[in-house]
Amino acid sequence: MNILAYLESKRAQIVAQLADSKATIAKNKSEDAEFKSNQTQQQLDGIILESGTSDAELVQARGSEPLLYNRLDRVDKKVKQNTVDFVNEVRKHNQVNEHIYAKMLGDRSLQVAVPLRGKKAAIYDFVKDHNDDFIKFANIQMGEVGIMEGILSRKNYDSDTEFGNFTHSHLPFAWTGTPGARFEGVFTGTGVEVQLPRDYRGGIWDFYLDANITQDQRDMDSRTGNWILAHAPNSHTSEVGATMTITFTGTEIGFRHYADNRGGVWEFVIDCDTENKVQISTWRSSGTQDQYKQIFLDLAYEEHTLVGTFIGDDPENPPEGGTSRGWANINPDDAENRYTFLFSGGDYSNQVTLSCWREQSTLAISAFPLWSGLDYDTYVVTGVYRGADPEHPPGDGSTHGRGWIAFRDPEGTTYRDAWTFLVLDMGINTTVAFNASVGHSNKEFAILISPKDSGFSNKFIPDHGDGTVFVGTDGYQKIYFDDALIDRTTLDDEYTSVKSVKVIQKMVGIHPDDNGEITCDIYCVHTITTNGVHYKVKIIFRKPTFSSAGYLCMLPWLNSFGEELVTGIGNKYPSIATDGSATYLSEEYDLNSTFAVINKTGTSEKGDTVLAMTLHNLAKTMRQGQGNRGRGGLSTRIVWLEHRDTTMQKLYPHQIYHLDLDVGDELEASCSLYLGELPLARYLL
What we know:
By secondary structure, the chain is mainly β. Strands 29, 30, 31, 33, 34, 35, 38, 39, 41, 42 and 46 form an eleven-stranded antiparallel sheet that branches. The chain is elongated, with a radius of gyration of 35 Å.
């Protein structure tokens, strides 16, 4: 080995690294600045005193080795002997198919399924940011793809079929508080799911398939006692023992009436069954017309006779002045169709009961399966609200709770997938077994910037709550399925079999306080093939800019999946802490280009799955040989692992720290990611 030549080639790098450290000491404004400055100065002083030479950078670089080349040889050997490209390594153990499957999920959002083995597939999502235009790499999921039942289309129920009082003022959160209220929806497919908003007020829905429900309404057939009809349909009797009777054919019946603070109680008996009589109060603190109360449900579909008897005061709410009144709609003049009784019947044999209650007060929409595996045909779904969940009384103190139902606003720009029904059919579809990554967490880049000397607060590009990356006047975003340019922004009904997918973006970065002035140009391309996801990004600055921190090619993962990070030079780092602390990968900063996240204790499915990332062109991606890198400006903190919380972990290559960027300066990075199977990965890696 030519030691002199070797030393000469390495000396320049070490001098540059020492210069970086000195520059960092001068610039460092972080919490570590004072500590680093003092420690570095003490170290330099000690080096010079102990060595008797002014060539301090060489003495520092040799570390604990007697000669510099000893340390360099040791590091080089470790890298050469241990480095492995995890993306390539994991890919070797997976079946490589010719095709992948892609579909649009909506406006500049898409999903790509990459087959691995049989139906097993890695499923990658790409979504447009909420507050700007950037299309970012989102979920990384393990699941299946193949000919199976999946979502064919989405649709709302038919609002023209509503019966009862429905509120549509806060779509997509439609609701009713009327037991017996119903709606219908028609679908063509092999199955259907329903989407229900849920909160602490949620009640119970019954859903019926092809119930062929018939519905009718009419006044009572006969009545006894003294009745006051002067303000019909708001009629009443105050005679205890007065009755009303109706004979009908159906499976359920409800009662309409006026209500006020004089309302009394009716007692109903059906088919002389006095053991199961039902009492209904017509009391209400303020006068309200056309109240609807369900009396009997789930009757046999046959003729029934119902008798209501007025029994006097509501024991919990005595009349406020005068005698109590047994209110009941009587509609001799067909006034607004407000008849006494509404009854219906049908085939209720194919029934699913669902609750839209959850403990939290905030609404969240969930999808629930209703029917699947049907013959491909056209079907009718009927939803009937039954009232409060008996196991979970409404948290707002109301009597009947709320029957929440999703209803997408056709003109709305949010909750774009909040349709009532998800229609299923056989075709190329996917199912997700588990998510490995964190969809909302940035992967490609996150640069904290402000125009130099502007006094503006630093903002991230792209979106971290403020929109900062946009198409602009000269930019574009193009999505290709093979050679086909995709210009649709709506949800695809089915997947397309392709060999590659490309997402190409020519964008601009704009600080939100800078009056629309362009800070930088952003060029980004994602390519998805059977080999996984590959992306390359370059940022070119148009104006002097200060970046307090910047990260390129990050890797976030869910605690529910990843429990250990393995590096290409053989180091292993547990990723189970959840306290917001950090682990610094001090040996990885310029030596390692590849990482693998594995599960150590979970199911065999997770234990055989690896999330791998490989960085390309480390000189560019890691800004090798340049200053202002690492957390706090420290060279031992250029790569670090954040144990953020109970949800996620995140690997940060920290390429930028307190960096001044001039016009024309560039940041560049490229990376490959692959989710695949490696049997016994927890033991082999």
